[in-house]
C-alpha cells in the first residue's frame, strides 16, 4: 500500500445514530457501547483542544459512550439494517462498512467479514460459485505445498515449518480451544500455505495470532455456544477444509493491505510506531514528556501491538468486536490503528505518569485488561474516532 493510500481518510463517512446502538438479548453484547453521535470536528481544531485530559474520565469519550446506553429498544432496527444490506442482489459495501464499524451481530459476522475483505463478491449471484472455486484452490495449495514429504522442501521451508509448529501451541494460550490438536493442525496448514505463497515476507511470528479471529468467526457457522465448549473433532474434513480456506483467503486479504508490516525489518510497523509517538505527543504532552524523560521507547511495547493487532493485549472474547471496526476501515486500517492504539495507551495516562522506566515497561507488557468488557473497548474506539475526526484533514503532523 502506498504512503498516500495509508494517510487518506476512509472514502465513506462513518455515521452513528442512536438507532444503530444496542443488541437484542439473543445476540452477544458486542454493540452495547457502540460509538454514536460523533460529528466530525473542524480539521483546523487548535492544539489546545487536543491536550485535555485523556484518562479514562475523558469527557468527550464519556459523552459518546453515554449516548449509546439505554437504547436496547432500537435493537431490531439495527438488525433490520444489516438484514436489508445483506439481502439485496448487490451489497453496497460502503453502507455495510458504516454499519459494521459499530459492531456486527455475531451470527452475521461470517458473511459480513467475507464481504468487507473482498473475499466474497458483493453480487449474490456470483458468491456461491466464487467461494467454491477459492476453497478448491486452497485445497490444491495444501496438496502442493503442505502435504508433501520434507525431502521435497528446501532448508528454509523446513525451518519455517518448524517455527510455525513451535508458535502454534503459543497462540492465544489462555483459550483452551486453541490447544486442541485438530485446531493446531488447521493453524499449521493455513500459516505454512500462506507463507509459501507469500515469499516476500514468509512466516513472521505474530501472523499466527491474526488467524485466530477468522477461525473463531468461521467456525461459529457450525458450532454453537461458548468457545470453551467447542470441539472440531467431530467435524467432517470437508467443513474443516472450507473453514481453513476462508481463514486463508481472509488473512491474505487483510495482509495485502499491510505487506510492509511483515517484510524484512518490518518497516510498515516501524513507521506506524513513529506516528503513534507523534500523535500521543500532540494529544497528551505530559505523559509523552514523562515517557521520554524516563527513556521509554515506543518500540518496546507498541511493536507487539501493531504486529498482533492488540490480540495479545485484550481478552479474547472482545477481539471479534474490535475486528469489526478493523475490517470496516478497509484500506485505511493501518492509518486508523495509530488512533486506536493512542486511545488504548492513554487509557492509563494518569497511571503511567506515576511510574518509572522499569515500572512502565512491566505495566505496558502486562496491561490490566483482563476484566475488560465491551464498554471499555467501545470507549477506546470512541476516542479514536474523535481524534481521527480532529486530525484527518491535516495529517501532515504525522508524516514520517
Automatic annotation (TrEMBL):
It comes from the Eukaryota. Residues 7-22 have a biased composition (Polar residues). Residues 37-48 have a biased composition (Low complexity). Residues 1-76 are annotated as: Disordered. One of its GO terms (molecular function) is GTPase activator activity. Pfam families: RabGAP-TBC. Residues 103-330 form the Rab-GAP TBC domain. SMART domains: TBC (SM00164). Gene3D superfamilies: putative rabgap domain of human tbc1 domain family member 14 like domains, Ypt/Rab-GAP domain of gyp1p, domain 1, Ypt/Rab-GAP domain of gyp1p, domain 3. This is Rab-GAP TBC domain-containing protein. It comes from Gossypium raimondii (Peruvian cotton).
Amino acid at each position: 500500500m502506498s504512503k498516500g493510500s495509508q494517510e487518506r481518510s476512509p472514502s465513506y463517512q462513518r455515521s452513528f445514530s442512536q438507532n444503530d446502538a444496542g443488541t437484542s438479548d439473543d445476540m452477544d453484547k458486542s454493540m452495547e457501547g457502540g460509538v454514536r453521535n460523533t460529528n466530525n470536528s473542524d480539521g483546523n481544531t487548535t492544539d489546545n483542544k487536543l491536550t485535555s485530559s485523556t484518562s479514562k474520565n475523558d469527557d468527550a469519550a464519556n459523552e459518546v459512550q453515554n449516548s449509546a446506553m439505554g437504547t436496547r429498544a432500537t435493537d431490531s432496527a439495527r438488525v433490520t439494517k444489516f438484514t436489508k444490506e445483506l439481502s439485496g442482489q448487490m451489497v453496497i459495501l460502503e453502507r455495510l462498512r458504516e454499519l459494521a464499524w459499530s459492531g456486527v451481530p455475531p451470527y452475521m459476522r461470517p458473511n459480513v467479514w467475507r464481504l468487507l475483505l473482498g473475499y466474497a463478491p458483493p453480487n449474490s449471484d456470483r458468491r456461491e460459485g466464487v467461494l467454491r472455486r477459492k476453497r478448491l484452490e486452497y485445497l490444491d495449495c495444501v496438496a502442493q505445498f503442505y502435504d508433501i514429504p520434507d525431502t521435497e522442501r528446501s532448508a528454509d521451508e523446513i525451518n519455517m515449518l518448524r517455527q510455525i509448529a513451535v508458535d502454534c501451541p503459543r497462540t492465544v494460550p489462555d483459550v483452551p480451544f486453541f490447544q486442541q490438536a485438530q485446531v493446531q493442525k488447521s493453524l499449521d496448514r493455513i500459516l505454512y500455505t500462506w507463507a509459501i505463497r507469500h515469499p516476500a515476507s514468509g512466516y513472521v511470528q505474530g501472523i499466527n495470532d491474526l488467524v485466530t479471529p477468522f477461525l473463531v468467526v468461521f467456525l461459529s457457522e457450525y458450532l454453537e455456544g461458548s468457545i470453551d465448549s467447542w470441539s472440531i473433532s467431530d467435524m467432517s474434513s470437508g467443513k474443516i477444509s472450507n473453514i481453513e480456506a476462508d481463514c486463508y483467503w481472509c488473512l491474505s486479504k487483510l495482509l495485502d493491505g499491510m505487506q510492509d508490516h511483515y517484510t524484512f525489518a518490518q518497516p510498515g510497523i516501524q513507521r506506524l510506531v513513529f506516528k503513534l509517538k507523534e500523535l500521543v505527543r500532540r494529544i497528551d504532552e505530559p505523559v509523552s514528556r514523562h515517557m521520554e524523560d524516563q527513556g521509554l521507547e515506543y518500540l518496546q511495547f507498541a511493536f507487539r501491538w501493531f504486529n498482533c493487532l492488540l490480540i495479545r493485549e485484550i481478552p479474547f472474547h472482545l477481539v471479534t468486536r474490535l475486528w469489526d471496526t478493523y475490517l470496516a476501515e478497509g484500506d485505511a486500517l493501518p492509518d486508523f490503528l495509530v488512533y486506536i492504539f493512542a486511545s488504548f495507551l492513554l487509557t492509563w495516562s494518569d497511571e503511567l505518569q506515576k511510574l518509572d522506566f522499569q515500572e512502565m515497561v512491566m505495566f505496558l507488557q502486562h496491561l490490566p485488561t483482563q476484566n475488560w468488557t465491551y464498554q471499555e473497548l467501545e470507549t477506546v474506539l470512541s476516542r479514536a474516532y474523535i481524534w481521527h475526526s480532529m486530525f484527518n484533514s491535516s495529517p501532515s503532523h504525522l508524516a514520517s
